[in-house]
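Fig. S4 source data, part A: sequence.
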Amino acid sequence: MQQKWICLNNPLLPMAEGILRRQMQGEKEGRGDYTYWQIQTPLFFRCMILTLNPPRVQSMVQQQQQQQQQQQQQQQQQQQQQQQQQQQQQQQQQQQQQQQQQQQQQQQQQHFYSNNVSLCSTSVIRYSVMNGVRSQQPRQI
């Protein structure tokens, strides 16, 4: 004989009332399947003491526990997925920042070249003294 306290919140009340109805019917018919007390609490919870003899009641409780565990696992998976999405977003942001930095560097380079185009494109006159003769050699850079 296992005795368990099960506090049932509003969503589970119909099932509890069904169990209570079956138990009352069983008592009328002389079948004492399980003992069951119903207590009305001030917090509008119905707390029941179940003496779990039949395996079907145990299986109902186990199913509820399994469902709760599955829901918790699903929530954890969703949280993990959200974390992964956040990480991906952060990576994308980092990539965008890198792209922006590259664009800035390109702009700076273009700015440098545009300022110095006049110097680079013109021929630089180099005076070199060769054999005592001064020669002008235009040279493109």
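Fig. S4 source data, part B ends here. Confidence is low (pLDDT under 50) at residues 1-10, 33-53, 115-131.
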